[in-house]
Amino acid sequence: MKNNIAVLVSGGGTNLQALLDAEKSGIIKSGHITLVVSSKPGVYALTRAENAGIKSEILERKAYDSITEYSVAMRDLLLLNNIDIVVLAGFMTILDESFCEAFAERIINVHPALLSKNPEFGGKSFYGIKVHEAVLQSGVKTTGATVHIVTPECDRGPILLEKEVDVLEGDTPEILQKRVMEQAEWIILPQAVEILIKDSKNEN
Ligand code: GAR
Questions:
Q1: Which of 48, 54, 159, 179 has the fewest CB atoms within 10 Å, counting from its CB?
Q2: C-beta of 12 in contact with ligand 1 (< 6 A)
Q3: Which regions of the chain does DSSP assign to beta strands (E)?
Q4: 148 is an active site residue
Q5: How far is the CA of 68 from the centre of ligand 1 (A)?
Q6: For residue 109, how far is its CA from the centre of ligand 1 (angstroms)?
Q7: Percent of the chain residues past pLDDT 90, beyond the cut
Q8: What are the start-end ranges of the E strands in 29-106?
């Protein structure tokens, strides 16, 4: 039986789209995306889920007083939907330790930098376009993306896949973000989902 995959989003959902396309094309074959959860209403990721005929839920961070309460609500929602694998795909809220424990070794995150080589571009202050701004400010010539297993320490879990991308003369944060998505994120995130299910005890 295929694993049930939940994809957690907060924005445009281009990584969600890459996952949906990868399931269609057979790159993801051991799992089935059955749920999309957004931390924000009105985001385009929800339209992508609807277009693909995938159930979606909105779990707004600001509706909860604390990250602990939010994490419990997220855990319960995923358990209710019989979720096996959790993919953080542009999900901009850090879930707590109890959530990480409930889905231990079964949560992955895509981060738009090379965390093995440049861990300084990870952590709770670095997300979305901020990562690319920091990369350009630092002057490094190579960046990329990382998919890692999620542990309580933000962006520090074991790395599943990484892919390098060149930083080019004249790059703006937006141009670099697009190149990192196209050349790295959208490729390695679906591959990592399949690896996680295949190479672990998660295969049913
Ligand atoms: C992606 O670049 C993703 O790596 C990043 O946000 C963007 C979401 O785009 N995630 C983080 O920075 C998390 N730390 P998307 O909504 O189009 O997939």
A1: 159
A2: yes
A3: 3-9, 31-38, 55-58, 85-88, 107-111, 142-149, 159-166
A4: no
A5: 23
A6: 9
A7: 96
A8: 31-38, 55-58, 85-88
